[in-house]
Amino acid sequence: MCKNSPMRLALFQPDIPQNVGAAIRAAACFGAGLDIIEPCGFPLDSREIKRVAMDYGALVQPIAHRSWAAFRQTTTDSRLILLTTKAEKSIWDFDFREDDTLLMGRESAGAPDEVHDAATARLLIPLAPGARSLNIHVAAAVALAEARRQVGWGDD
After folding, report:
1. Going from the N-terminus, what domains does the chain have, and what CATH number goes with each?
2. How many other β-carbons are positioned within 10 Å of the β-carbon of residue 145?
């Protein structure tokens, strides 16, 4: 695992606890930190999160932010990379950096305009014709894998 990686995954007001658990696992596997921007559609101590995260919760302890504004106060030094089906640029055509924060919108509603406006870049994952979207934790894992492929693990 990447030591002290500044790369982060952020979930904007998640609706489904199992997706947070899966995001914990993805962040751990790809050496990234995890931010959760509240309010959430469930308590953050939900057993569903722990069940899906399994023992990966010991590797990545999510940081909860009470609001979008509170989260923004912590991200002044990193680029916010929003994954959205509304983007035109592909993750395959983007140059990720080690200190990027990959941001996912809500499962039920995506990201509001203020989140889109704050993003340094808005990216999509190309899908087969007729497919609308990936599950949010699957999309997060794909994006983290591509970002990690580009920047490596920081081992010199």
Report:
1. 8-151 (3.40.1280.10)
2. 14
pLDDT at 127 > cutoff 60: yes
Give the residue from 19, 68, 58, 75 showing the smallest Cα distance to 42.
Answer: 19
CA atoms within 13 A on the CB side of 154: 14
The closest of 26, 24, 27 to 48, measured between CA atoms, is 24
- Nearest CA among 76, 77, 74, 87 for reference residue 121: 87
Task: List Cβ neighbours of 124 (8 Å cut-off, separation of 6 or more).
Answer: 83, 84, 85, 86, 87, 88, 89, 90, 91
Cα–Cα nearest to 66, from 50, 44, 83: 44
Six token digits for residue 123: 């990216």
pLDDT above 50: residue 2:
no
For residue 39, pLDDT beyond 80: yes
